């Protein structure tokens, strides 16, 4: 975050503008928390700001302050295209490659507004006129907090904004346990609590909203888990049929992949989830320590993300995808056992 970038952003925001704020496809707590917090801030500064998500997001995020005004591009692409065309400024938050904006990306590539990226993933693309990129940060919400402070807005952080920012920091840090959690993270969170974030209520709203069918699906997933001690790896599969029989809804499998890492001596956890509608297997990778799952995903499964948390996909069948994955493991045996 250079002084020059802050000055450029300050100048860009000096007079009221139409601003669009976009999270990545399949938005998570950090994506929705950061976009909504920024939206509240910009509206407070007199801008016409809007959050537009590429597609649907989980129900457990739909209590976030400002949620009722979020546009979902997939629901009405024509209206969405109009917003994109009319926006003078387009913020892209929690992603750094326009292709991660899903069906919205072709329109974004033609947009004439000024792009501002705020993101903590590695290898940012250079589509934005102003780029705030810091892979050392645990969440985009921390970056939005820093940005608002750098713009002189700390005292204008409302309790709605604090709720949104706290949510993203909490979800992206695994409730403050991942290595990216620093003293600074805790100082930010302390300030957010002072400004109205209700930590206990937020934990409940995010984590304690299970319905019985989600727990049954978790049971199914844990039953399907395969443990490969020689590779310190555990993986889970869920077929479309299994999802359907548990009455699957978006977000239901959130967090399942982490159970593999809770096993002693397992440092690489993977979940393969079949999506027949999109004709893909969606894959999530998690690791502990130095095993870089973003590189693994990038090289073999058209994905990316962070060193310890990444996603990818395969257009082969579930069975073929898993066997391709298993074929890859021997070449990583040394790294997995380092
Ligand atoms: P998840 O497994 O929860 O979908 O994603 C884990 C992390 O990897 C998130 O930070 C997410 O943004 C990132 N990620 C997931 N899928 C992809 C992908 O296809 N490409 C890239 N570059 N990042 C991804
Ligand atoms: Mn994030």
TrEMBL record:
Q: Which residues form the DDH domain?
A: 18-169
- Domain of life here? Bacteria
Q: Which GO terms describe its molecular function?
A: nucleic acid binding
Q: Which InterPro entries match?
A: DDH_dom, DHH_sf, DHHA1_dom, Oligoribo/pAp-PDE_c-di-AMP_PDE
DHHA1 domain boundaries: 246-331
Gene3D superfamilies, from UniProt? 3.10.310.30, inorganic pyrophosphatase (n-terminal core) (3.90.1640.10)
Name of the protein: DHH family phosphoesterase
Q: Which organism is it from?
A: Sediminicola luteus
């Amino acid at each position: 975050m250079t002084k020059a970038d802050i000055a450029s952003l300050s100048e860009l925001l000096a007079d009221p503008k139409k601003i669009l704020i976009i999270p990545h496809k399949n938005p998570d707590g950090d994506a929705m928390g950061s976009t909504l917090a920024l939206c509240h801030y910009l509206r407070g500064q007199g801008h016409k700001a809007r959050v537009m998500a590429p597609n649907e997001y989980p129900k457990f995020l739909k209590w976030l302050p400002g949620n009722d005004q979020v546009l979902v591009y997939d629901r009405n692409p024509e209206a969405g295209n109009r917003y994109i065309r009319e926006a003078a400024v387009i913020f892209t938050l929690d992603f750094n490659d326009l292709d991660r904006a899903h069906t919205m990306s072709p329109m974004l590539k033609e947009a004439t507004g000024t792009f501002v990226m705020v993101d903590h993933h590695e290898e940012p693309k250079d589509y934005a006129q102003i780029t705030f990129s810091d892979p050392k940060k645990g969440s985009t919400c921390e970056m939005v907090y820093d940005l608002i402070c750098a713009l002189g807005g700390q005292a204008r952080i409302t309790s709605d904004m604090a709720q949104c920012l706290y949510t993203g920091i909490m979800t992206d840090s695994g409730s403050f346990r991942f290595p990216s959690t620093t003293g600074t993270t805790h100082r930010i969170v302390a300030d957010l609590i002072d400004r109205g974030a209700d930590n206990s209520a937020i934990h409940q709203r995010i984590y304690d909203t299970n319905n019985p069918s989600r727990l049954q699906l978790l049971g199914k997933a844990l039953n399907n888990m395969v443990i490969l001690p020689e590779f310190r790896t555990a993986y889970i599969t869920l077929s479309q049929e299994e999802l359907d029989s548990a009455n699957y809804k978006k977000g239901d499998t959130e967090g399942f992949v982490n159970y593999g890492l809770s096993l002693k001596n397992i440092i690489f956890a993977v979940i393969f989830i079949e999506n027949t509608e999109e004709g893909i297997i969606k894959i999530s990778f998690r690791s502990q320590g130095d095993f870089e799952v973003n590189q693994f995903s990038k090289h073999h499964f058209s994905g990316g993300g962070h060193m310890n948390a990444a996603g990818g996909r395969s257009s082969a069948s579930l069975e073929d995808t898993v066997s391709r994955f298993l074929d890859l493991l021997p070449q990583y045996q040394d790294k997995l056992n380092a």
